Amino acid sequence: MITIVSGLPRSGTSLMMQILSAGGMEILTDNLRPPDVNNPKGYFEFERTKSLAKDNSWLEQAENKAVKVIAQLVKFLPTDHSYKCIVMDRNIDEILLSQSRMITALGGNQSTVTNEILKKTFMEQLSKVKHFLAANQQFNMYVVNYNELLSGREAAISRLNEALSLGLDVDEAASVIDDSLYRNRGGR
Q: pTM of the entire structure?
């Protein structure tokens, strides 16, 4: 069984990886992307996931662990494995604001694509991921609302833990949530 953490960029996938790790789950990460101002506790990524469409041989390393896979690549997960999938869902305006601030902080140029187009594209991508996971029996999907996770951490983690039988230490898992890092609220 492989636990997949997925969602749109800036939806809380790194936070969920921290939660799982603190709760006692082994995670698959290579620590190649260091923490920065945008994710001061780290990204918890595994570089080889980026090539999932062409190479999934690394999946054997993820057995009985959690690994982060961006939403756009979930459809390339082979169906000869069984998965517990945690999909992070966050207020789309907060995601867009967080991405914009991240690009600015990194010295990048803002996209010429409007927020309305990005919002529509992201919402379609997330909907497709949820539909794909729900339609395939190899995937046991559980959606975690980022905003609800932060406002009721123990209860949200308990529900996740029970729904997917993760065996997490809920108190330890909840202890890593840092309210000061919730900087892009409500799209303001």
A: 0.84
Q: Pick from 33, 128, 153, 113: which is nearest to 73 by CA? A: 128
Residue 99, C-beta contacts closer than 8 angstroms, at least 6 positions apart: 9, 10
Residue type, 75: K
Please list the residues that pair with 83 across neighbouring strands: 2, 139
Q: What is d(CA 64, CA 139) in angstroms, rounded to the nearest whole number?
A: 14
Of residues 71, 176, 73, 161, the one with CA closest to residue 124: 71
Q: Report the C-alpha gap between 129 and 131 in whole angstroms.
A: 5
Residues with Cβ within 8 Å of residue 107, at least 6 apart in sequence: none
Question: Residues 3-59: pLDDT tens digits?
Answer: 999 998 888 999 999 999 999 999 999 988 887 776 678 789 899 999 999 999 999
Tell me the one-letter amino acid at 156. A
Rounded Cα distance, 129 and 75, in Å: 7
pLDDT at position 183? 46
Tokens of 172: 């330890």
Ranges of H-type helices in the chain: 13-22, 92-105, 115-135, 146-151, 153-164, 170-174
The domain locations on the chain are 2-179
pLDDT tens for each residue of 78-113: 988 999 999 999 988 887 876 666 555 555 555 555
Q: State the CATH class of domain 2-179.
A: alpha beta
